[in-house]
Each structure stands twice: as structure tokens, then as C-alpha cells.
């Protein structure tokens, strides 16, 4: 049986356009999936529906066969088994790290509570900060506390709604790799929402792309990179150069080989130093402006350049 099942979810807010359109997705136990979509594509709405915190118009959510009720059907909306973590940490400002993590366990047995909090502090590397208040911690550490708080009830499903947006790139990368290991160790099923492909790739190999409330494509990043279903999926991974005479087909900068004498001629307009290559802006004889990757860093503005690519790498038509 599928562990977490989202079945044809439909959602519109009052008098509004549909925000989610027949959205279906199946997750296995312990699977970590990154859901990527532009701002306004319905990602947060979807997570709130999965958590049982937002009413859906149609469709169902099941966790191990148990139907997740809409908030209007329940006295206390939401489920202990499904925890949602947001970007803003929702921590108790006057409680220590330890107390924050213990807070959802108020009604639990003291020895269980102590054991659980100790385990989470250790897993999250927060032992030495356990007495500190949230404001005495960095953004990354505060986010760890928020995740610890969400994990204290031993949820089976953790929903992460852009939880790292306020952190800088290095903090994000480190935190994501630590959390990824922890999620595997705890066998928790995770749906991670982001609009950042890098964050998504750091977190998991299972990607789901959402556009305007619809699931566009899901699968391994390599599959989406080589066989994107639409222009949005294709553009997520790199710039696309439109083929001359066929504006619906494209070639990626990384799939173009550069030569000094044979191939399709172009002229180098600009050169930008990037970490692994120089990005060249070039103009083709037909007038198109393209981006290409000069991995050997050998071309300069004003120079002639010649291009070749494998017809199999052409993307589209879209
Ligand atoms: N409570 C609400 N009432 C009315 N409309 C809403 C409500 N919440 C969200 N929306 C609308 O639903 C659409 C989807 O919003 P949602 O927050 O789910 O998208 P998102 O993909 O999470 O966006 P972002 O990445 O910016 O957080 C948007 O057009 C938004 O304005």
C-alpha cells in the first residue's frame, strides 16, 4: 500500500481561480521528495491540505490508508502524525532550546519526554545550546530547533515549507545535508517544498515539479534534465538557447561544443567568469543571442567562435 497518497486534490479559495488542479502524488515510507514550483503555484496550500489544516474542494489524502480529514470536519484540525515546518520558526522566545523541543510533549510521560528530547538534541547537534534562548542562536540553529520541535511527537510525515529561505547559501547547504542524514536515520517521510532547484537537489533525488497548481513532472533530476515535459521544467535546470528557425526547440549551453575554426559561426559579445567555466554571450549570424560555456576559458569578446552540438541534445518542441 502507498504510504502517503494524495488523490486528485482540487482547491480554490473563495471566488478565486483554481489553486490546485487534480493533484495526485504517492509517497513511500521514508521517501524524501522535493517539490519545486514558482511562487504562487500552490505549494503551501498543498502542504496545508496534506497536514489537514486547509479544506480541499475535492480529492482525498490518505496516510497508511487513514483518510486525512478537512479541518471543517474535525474539532482540532491537524494530526500529530503529520507535522508542518515553516520558514518563520514559530519558537517560544522565552523558552530554552530544550523547552521548545519538549513543548509538544507536555502530556507525555516524563521519562519518555526526557529521552526523546535528548535524542533530538543529539541528532540535531544542539546539545551544547540546550539552555540557550532562541534569540541567542543563529538562523540555522533556530531552524533546527523548529525541526526538533516538529519531530518531538515522532511524526511519520514531515512537511517542510521553504524552511531555509532566510538562511544564507552555506548555512542552507550544511543544514540540508545534516537533515537529510537525520531523516534517513529516523525513517521519516518528508515532503520538502522549495522554489530553489539547488536546495531541492541537495535534499533528495526525487523531484516533483508543480506549475500553476498542476503536477508537471516527477522523477530523478537526470530524467527531468534530459527529457523535460515542458518549458518550465526545461528552464529550471539551465538557460535555454532557441534554435534558429525553430523557436520551439532549444539547446542547453552545457551541450554546445566550442571550436576555433569549424562549426556554426558566431561572435563573442561578453565573457563572465563563473566558478566552473566562463559564460560567454555570443551572437549568431542569424542574430540570436546565446549563452555558451567556455570550460577552457579560451575565448574573448570580439573573437569569432564556432559551435557544434549533438542533434540528440536538442530539447523540445515546446
Ligand atoms: N488563504 C488564502 N486565501 C485566498 N487566496 C490564497 C490563500 N492562500 C493562498 N492563496 C492564493 O493561492 C495561490 C497559491 O498560493 P500558495 O501560497 O499555495 O503558493 P506557493 O506556491 O506556496 O507560493 P510561495 O512560493 O510564494 O509561498 C496564490 O495565488 C495565493 O494568492
TrEMBL record:
It comes from the Bacteria. Residues 4-237 form the ABC transporter domain. GO terms for cellular component: ATP-binding cassette (ABC) transporter complex. Keywords: ATP-binding, Nucleotide-binding, Transport. The lineage of its organism: Bacteria, Pseudomonadati, Bacteroidota, Cytophagia, Cytophagales. This is Iron(III) transport system ATP-binding protein. GO terms for biological process: quaternary ammonium group transport. GO terms for molecular function: ATP binding; ATP hydrolysis activity; transmembrane transporter activity. It comes from Cecembia calidifontis. The keyword ATP-binding applies. PANTHER family: SPERMIDINE/PUTRESCINE IMPORT ATP-BINDING PROTEIN POTA (PTHR42781), SPERMIDINE_PUTRESCINE IMPORT ATP-BINDING PROTEIN POTA (PTHR42781:SF4).
Amino acid at each position: 500500500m502507498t504510504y502517503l497518497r494524495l488523490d486528485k486534490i482540487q482547491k480554490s479559495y473563495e471566488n478565486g481561480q483554481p489553486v490546485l488542479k487534480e493533484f495526485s502524488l504517492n509517497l513511500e515510507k521514508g521517501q524524501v521528495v522535493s517539490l519545486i514550483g514558482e511562487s504562487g503555484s500552490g505549494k503551501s496550500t498543498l502542504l496545508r491540505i496534506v497536514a489537514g489544516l486547509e479544506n480541499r474542494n475535492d480529492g482525498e489524502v490518505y496516510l497508511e490508508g487513514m483518510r486525512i480529514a478537512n479541518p471543517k470536519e474535525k474539532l482540532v484540525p491537524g494530526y500529530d502524525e503529520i507535522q508542518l515546518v515553516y520558514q518563520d520558526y514559530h519558537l517560544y522566545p522565552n523558552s530554552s532550546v530544550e523547552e521548545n523541543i519538549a513543548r509538544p510533549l507536555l502530556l507525555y510521560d516524563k521519562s519518555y519526554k526526557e529521552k526523546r528530547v535528548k535524542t533530538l538534541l543529539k541528532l540535531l547537534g544542539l546539545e551544547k545550546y540546550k539552555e540557550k534562548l532562541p534569540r541567542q542562536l543563529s538562523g540555522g540553529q533556530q531552524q533546527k530547533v523548529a525541526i526538533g520541535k516538529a519531530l518531538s511527537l515522532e511524526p511519520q510525515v514531515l512537511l517542510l515549507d521553504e524552511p531555509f529561505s532566510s538562511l544564507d547559501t552555506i548555512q542552507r547547504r550544511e543544514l540540508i545535508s545534516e537533515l537529510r542524514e537525520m531523516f534517513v536515520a529516523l525513517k521519516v517521510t518528508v515532503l520538502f517544498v522549495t522554489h530553489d532547484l539547488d536546495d531541492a537537489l541537495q535534499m533528495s533525488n526525487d523531484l516533483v515539479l508543480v506549475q500553476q497548481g498542476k503536477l508537471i513532472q516527477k522523477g530523478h533530476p537526470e530524467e527531468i534534465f534530459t527529457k523535460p515535459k515542458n518549458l518550465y521544467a526545461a528552464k529550471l535546470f539551465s538557460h535555454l538557447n532557441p534554435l534558429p528557425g525553430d523557436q520551439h526547440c532549444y539547446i542547453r549551453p552545457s551541450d554546445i561544443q566550442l571550436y576555433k575554426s569549424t562549426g556554426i559561426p558566431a561572435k563573442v559579445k561578453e565573457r563572465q567568469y563563473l566558478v566552473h567555466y566562463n559564460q560567454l554571450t555570443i551572437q549568431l549570424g542569424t542574430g540570436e543571442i546565446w549563452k555558451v560555456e567556455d570550460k577552457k576559458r579560451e575565448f574573448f569578446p570580439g573573437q569569432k567562435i564556432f559551435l557544434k552540438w549533438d542533434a540528440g541534445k536538442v530539447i523540445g518542441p515546446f
